[in-house]
Structure formats: C-alpha cells, structure tokens
C-alpha cells in the first residue's frame, strides 16, 4: 500500500492535486476555527466590498462571504464524498457482477446501465428535487448517488471483462476458488485504479451537480453551501449591482477543488496506463534528448 | 441495417422506461401536484377545481394500470395537458416554441466544441510534450472540471455587466419581429454568442482529452509506421490514418456527453435568460407548473435519444464493418 502511495506521489500532477484536496479537507474539518463569523448571522452592512474585516465582503443579507465559503466547504465535500461512495459502490458492484457472471445476468445489468446512460440526467434530477420540495444536502447526495452510477458500471464492467480472460483468473477458477474469493481477492485489487478513478470523478460530478441544483433554488435555503451562496447571490442580483465577490468566491472554490480532484484522477490514469504519461515527463525527456544530441554533435566536432 | 434496427428497438424501450419514470415520480413521492398547487395558489384556485386538476395529472379514479395506459396514450397523441404558468396554452405548444432555441444553442456549441476539441486533441497527441500539448492539455483538464454555472456567471459578469460587450438576456432584441432579415439574424447571433461560447467552453475540454488519449493509443501501431515508410506526408498520416481510427471511440464518447450537453444548456439558458426548454423547465419548477415539468422531461428524453441515434448513424458511416453486419 505504501508502495502504491509512493508511486502516486511521484507523479507530479497527482501530488499537486492531492495537496489541493488535502487543504480543502483541512478547511472542512477546522471550519469552526477558521471562519471569523457565524455564516448565517448578520455581521455587517449589506454588500460591503472586501476589506480587512470582511476578507471577501458581505452578502446582501450582511453575512460574511468568507465565513460562508469556509462552512460551505464542509457541506460540499461531505456531499461529494457520500455521493461518490454510493456511486462507486453501486457502479462497481453492478460492473463486476455483470462481467463475472456473464450470460443473462450481464444482459440484464448491461441493458439497465445503457438505459440509465441515455436518460437526461440533470433534468431528471431537477424533476425529482422539484417533487421532493426543497431538499437538504444529504438528500441531494442520496439522489445524485442513486442516479449517477451508470458510467462507473460501464467502465468497471469493460475492465473486469478483460480481466476475466487473463491466465491467473482462469487458473484460480480451475483450482476451484469460491466465487466470493474470485471477486474480492482476485479481481477487485486489480480493478483498484478504475474504482479510484470512478470515485474521484463522481466526487467532482457531485460537487458540481449539487452546486447546480442549489443554484437553481432546489436545495434547502437553510443550508450553507457553495450552491446556496450562488443561489442567494442570484436572487440578490449580486452580479447586476456589481457585488462580484458574492458570486466569484464560490465559483473559485468550486473550480479549484474540481481542478485538484481531476489532477489526482489524471495521476491515477497515468499510473494505470503509462502511455498517457506525457506532459511534463515527455517534455523533460525531449529536452534531455536534445541536450544529449547537442553534446554528441559538439564532441563529434571536436 | 440490423445494427440500426437493434439500436432503434433499444431506444424505444429506453423511452418507455423514461416515460414510466415520469409517470411514477409524482405518484411515488409524498403529496401530489394538485394539492401542492392548491396550497401554493393562496386561494386563487377554488377547492372544487381539485378534481379537475387531479385529472390533468392523470390521477383519475381508476386502477393504476388504467391510469398508466391513459398516460401512455396521451404521450403518443402529443397531449401533455395545459400549462399552468402559461395558461391556457397547451404544454406541447409552449415546448415547441422553446425547442428551436435550445437546438440552436446545443447544436452550435456541439459543433464548435467537438471540432475544435478533436482537432486540438489530434495535434496535442501528435506533438506530445511540445508546446501545443503542454498548453492545450492542462487547460483542457482544468476546463473539464469547471461547471457550466461558473462559466456562465463569469461570462455574464465580465462580458455583459462589467463591460457591456454582450447583452445579458433574451435570444434577440425584443423590439424586433422574427423575420429572415439580416437585422434579426444578426441580433440572434449577437444574443446567442455568450450562451454558445459558455456551453462550448464547458464541453471542449472533455473532447480534447478523449481525442488525445485515443490518438496516443494509435501512435505505436504498425500501420502508421507503414504509412510513414511509404513516404506519405505527415498531415496525411495524421488525419487520414491515425485520426480516422482514433475518431471511433471519440464518437462513442460524444454520445456519452449528451447528458452534459443538455444539462449545461439548461444552466446556460437560466443564467442568460435564454428562452429554450431548459429555462422553461426552470420556470416550470419555480412556478410549480407540473404538466410543463413532465412534458419537458419527455421532450428532453426524446432529444437525448434522437441525438444518440444520430451518433449511431455516424458510427455506421465511420466504421465500414457495421455496414456489412
């Protein structure tokens, strides 16, 4: 396991991504210590520009934007992780089951996955949320988790199918290993990178989707999250009156965690598939090659 | 041909599943739309109208399966009931007015982002580690994780409010009458610019990365070495050989991105107050217009399935093996 971590950290993109995500996690954990004000209390005049007292200004309600951002980090990360776990659990279970058992089990599960994939997801989520009324962050996590597993199921199934034809799996089938052992001990560890990829991708997707649903006014207005911040900014016409801090602060928070998580995902992808390892490494290799060629030419000239 | 028939059958079943969801959602969740609307109307709707409202939603006094068949019948006759927000317009008419705007928005954004993203992806893979790759790939990676709502709000703030370069809302200047005149068309393009760019920016990263990865997968192949050995030009090997084969999985990824396309269009329409079906869904939800919400979901599903079908057709064209099958 520590080997895996070391490989992961040696990848520069993954290391930067992990650093960003860990900073967010620290902010989420220590939110009460970091936030200078109560996020829902009126602590200043409405729509004050950023100042020494209110680092990111205030909202139209006179709430401190910086404190809201800090507390919002907690909500958004928790929703993202919970929904990500649900998505990954369902997707992995369906994908492996379909690939391992094959025949009619595969037909049914694959059909189900394909149907879910061609349904318009955001409109469906909107309709669900609309019929449920304004829902809290946990309900949003659950809704997203239960409806977003199809992509993960598809990629896991594809990977597991190719794994099934490998010699070591065939061999363990021949020596009569029980099904649970085949799946949990032989297959699952070899699917770790695709599962990790799926999990991180789902966390990004959930954070974005939660913010979107709340921005459209479908979340509970009582929750403090980046989405409700955007919603409140929109209803207060913050953009039109020039209160850019109220809009840009949550936007920046969402973009940065998104970048951090996708950097991690690229790291996972590059480790699992060395051909993708390019950007920095190939540029470095090309530079070294060029220098060596130059040296050789100089040596030849001398 | 058999391939297409199989896909058509699949889409038929998928549509039926979506329609069934649409039927089940209001019936499974607590409360019913008629009561919610009565409660929200603040006495504007007479309690006697409740039965009529219930009937509008298909909550007729009948066993569930009869309700279901009545509902299915209403779909195929394109009868989604009357809109509440735009009373007394039928939902189908309201949606049909909005649909061209959404098609214009999603169509142009798809065309722009897929062609630019794919082209840049080809170049980034071909010149792996060089300037194009070093700039384009990390940018695409970052763009991929930026939600539509953020791009739309930033575009609105910087280009329509802070600097009044583009209009903040509507699809065309409301003082103009729709006509095939240059004045009207230019107004449509001018108003559509920010929404289309927003949506393209959201989508382009994904297409670039997918194409780059597919191209890299082709790079080591023997047939490319062969083409090069034959002395074909670099561009010919790149586009007619490598890219042609790398395009197939990219087209599959295209089909998977339609969800993001329609979702992104929804948000963009809301932020820019663009009169498409996404904005209509939003207005319907805010105004508790349940017939409109349900009709919109069906239209969206239909659009998704048709878009997928179009991709299947493109696939047959791109992959000659399927024509024989």
Topology:
The complex is a heterodimer of chains A (302) and B (325).
Chain A lengths: L1 H9 L1 H18 L1 H4 L30 H37 L1 H16 L2 H12 L4 H11 L2 H15 L2 H8 L4 H9 L4 H24 L10 H10 L8 H29 L6 H23 L1
Helix pairs in contact in A: 2-4, 2-13, 4-5, 4-7, 4-8, 4-11, 4-13, 5-8, 6-7, 7-11, 8-11, 11-12, 11-13, 12-13
Chain B lengths: L1 H27 L4 H9 L8 H7 L7 H13 L14 H36 L4 H14 L3 H15 L19 H38 L2 H8 L4 H23 L1 H14 L5 H10 L3 H29 L1 H5 L1
Helix pairs in contact in B: 1-13, 2-3, 5-6, 5-8, 5-10, 5-11, 5-13, 6-8, 7-8, 7-11, 8-10, 8-11, 9-10, 10-13, 11-12, 12-13
- First-residue to last-residue Cα separation of chain A: 51 Å
Radius of gyration of chain B, whole Å: 24 Å
Q: Quick one: biggest sheet of chain B?
A: none
Overall residue-averaged pLDDT value of chain B: 82
Structural class of chain B: mainly alpha
The total beta strand count of chain A reads 0
First and last CA, distance of chain B? 7 Å
Total DSSP E strands of chain B = 0
Question: What percent strand of chain B?
Answer: under 5%
Multimeric status of the protein: heterodimer
Number of helices of chain B: 14
Unreliable stretches of chain A:
none
Anisotropy-based shape of chain A: flat
Average pLDDT taken over every residue of chain A: 83
Largest inter-chain contact set: A-B, 51 and 61 residues
Describe this structure in words.
The complex is a heterodimer of chains A (302) and B (325). Chain A has 302 residues and is mostly helical. In chain A, 75% of the residues lie in helices and 0% in strands. The longest helix of chain A is centred in the first third of the chain and has 37 residues, at 65-101. Chain A is flat, with a radius of gyration of 24 Å. Chain A starts with a helix and ends with a helix. The model of chain A has no long low-confidence stretch (mean pLDDT 83). Chain B has 325 residues and is an all-alpha fold. Chain B has 14 helices and no strands. Chain B is globular, with a radius of gyration of 24 Å. In chain B, 41% of the residues are buried. Classes of the chains: A mainly alpha (302), B mainly alpha (325). At the A-B interface, helix 5, helix 6, helix 11, helix 13 and helix 14 of A face helix 1, helix 6, helix 7, helix 8 and helix 11 of B.
